[in-house]
Specification:
Blueprint lengths: L8 H10 L6 H13 L6 H13 L6 H18 L17 H22 L8 H13 L10 H25 L16
Helix pairs in contact: 2-3, 2-4, 2-5, 2-7, 5-6, 5-7, 6-7
Length: about 190
Amino acid sequence: MATLPTLRIDNLLAALNEAEIAQHPVEVHGALVGLICGGVEQSSKGWTLPLLELMNDGQALPPKLQALVEELYQDAVTRLSDTDFGFNPMLPEEEESLPKRVEALSLWVQSFLTGIAIIQPKLNKASTEVREVIQDLSEIAQVEFDVAEDDESEAALIELMEFTRMAALLCYSEFGPAIEDDTPIDLGVLH
């Protein structure tokens, strides 16, 4: 599934800057996906209010940014519910330096964990697998940014990105709306 041209990091960054909201696009996407994976009510008010609390102290967004966030929400829901697992965290392209991509992954995971925690008060009662994944994600959120630009570090980042992607899908399968395909998701939990 191709990403819509409007849902690029640079477009979201420009809209956030124009609205004077000091959030990185990956933080907005991470929080939004966290809310969705936590089982936020799928109605417009259900997900909009908690997201506004996280990204703009509960204040309404300018129309251009609001439209972009709504498009981002629809895209995330569509991708998370796609049985072919078309979902990926919004992260910088490979052209960015490795430290910037590592930092972006950390920010995305931090925001995802915040989003899921505020909407899903029963995380401590989740399945063992989800609790382990949440613990592993909290370790990913604290990853060091000063990494060497080498093949080993690149491979490690790719592995962490894939784990993060599958962790979000696992949380969505546990807390989100019922998915027609009941095939369990195997993450190969990190430890």
